[in-house]
Amino acid sequence: MKYQILAQDYYQGHTVEIARSLLGARLVYFSPEGLTSGIIVETEAYLSQDDPACHAARGKTKRNAVMFGPPGRAYVYFIYGSYYCFNVVTNGEGVGEAVLIRALEPVEGLGLMQKRCGRGQKKNNLTSGPGKLCQAMGICREHNGMSLQEYPFFIAAGVAPDNLSVGVSGRIGINQGQDKQWRFYLKGNPFVSRRGV
Prior knowledge:
The chain is mainly beta. The chain has one domain: 3-methyladenine DNA Glycosylase, Chain A. Helices cover about 10% and strands about 30% of the residues. The chain contains three helices and nine strands, in the order αβββββααββββ. Strands 1, 2, 3, 4, 5, 6, 7, 8 and 9 form a nine-stranded antiparallel beta sheet that branches. Helix 2 (about 110-115) crosses helix 3 (about 130-135). The radius of gyration is 15 Å and the shape is globular.
């Protein structure tokens, strides 16, 4: 399959708008184990200004340094001592903003995803959450800072959100900033991490 990889300038706009526009795009990883990919069905925006839930809210640190680098790179971090979360750096260099990819609809490499997550996992439970999708896709700390504009790890164009039914809500799984309506998801999609929020 031929992929139309999203260029770096795609990620240089307003982070909230990018979070919505990434719905329908495809995350692709050609790992040493094989190819896996999925359609992005849920995202959340994290902004550097007036957003206490953003990792960059208090400035640049060793942990969040990638957020202040060029847009269009992967920001991957370990959380709760058990799983990874995958974000895309957005806006401009030095700003400190990102979009969290919360859920995918598996497209390619379903068998490999099930192998990574446990053979008994049902398809709609493989990638329906940020930690789950990282495990299924094989995303880990080594991906932190990687460019998403080239093989083996990238985001490709998909169905434009304007042609999809998009839901909007407050962000979930955070202790501050839940009131900000910066979570976007495909309505009715069975792979969304939490519906009816």
